[in-house]
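User: I'm curious whether this sequence folds into something compact or stays loose and floppy. Could you predict its structure so I can see for myself?
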Amino acid sequence: MSPTRFEDRASVIQVRALTKRFGAFTAVDRVSFDVAKGEIFGYLGANGAGKSTTIKMLCGLLRPTEGSCRVAGFDIAYDARSAQACIGYMSQKFSLYLDLPVLANLEFFAGAYRIPSPARRIAELSERVGIEGVGRVRTGDLPGGTRQKVALASALLHDPTVIFLDEPTAGVDPASRRGFWELIRELAASGKTILVTTHYLDEAEGCHRVGLMVDGKLVALDAPAGLKESCVPGVMRRLRGDDLAALTSTLRSRPEVVEVQPFGRSLHVRSPSLEEATRLEGWLRSHYPRIEVEAAEATLEDVFLEVVRTHGREEATS
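Assistant: Here's the prediction. I'll summarize afterward.
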């Protein structure tokens, strides 16, 4: 990913103290951020964190309780229709008609958007997203990855400048996920502004910036590298071997250890400094010679776990 400074570009999405309450429950709590032209902005959080609710407000589908948002220069509160003409929205729930062939679905949405020369636009998009040859196939019979590509094509029919993708690769196989993200990068390179939510933290590594939502609050926002540096400071080591679960509590009691987290079949162990990480390695070689220790880089999963842990501690003491 190129080191583009998106903060130097004009904001296509502007969100200020955006809040949504449902009775006594606050789903989105005074969220503020900007997204620039050509930026892939990752919006991450657990289920119920407020991601989909934020997107629905940005699309004009939900009215905010407080705050404001502008999309493509239009204030959603006063001119949602103009903003919606600039927006492509791929919702978390598959929104096409499963009983219709792919082509019939695309023709329906082309008519809704009043697209001139719809056949040419559909053919162009079918080639771009990789769904040529499936036009006569019943949409419900498609595999998950292809079905999501059809949903993306329908969201792009009117050539929107802003694209909201809510869990676009949920339930999609790894190969199709990679292909989907290649499309996302191509769209951003062509100048489209993209806000995407995902549960796959490896996908979020491909975003220019990432915002982390916890309990309706935007608690961290930066480029992936910046989040790792600010949220997971120190030196990381990866441990491999047998009986790591039994070793976890012992490691957490060591003075050289800040945090221990399972990471697949290994452990990520963080020390506050290189000196302490080296001292920990010596102790492990002495007491657990069969444990493999290697240098590791923090991941966005480490960041997310640390942010959730820190936020929970702050909530408990407030």
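Summary: The chain has a mean pLDDT of 90. The longest strand covers residues 11-22.
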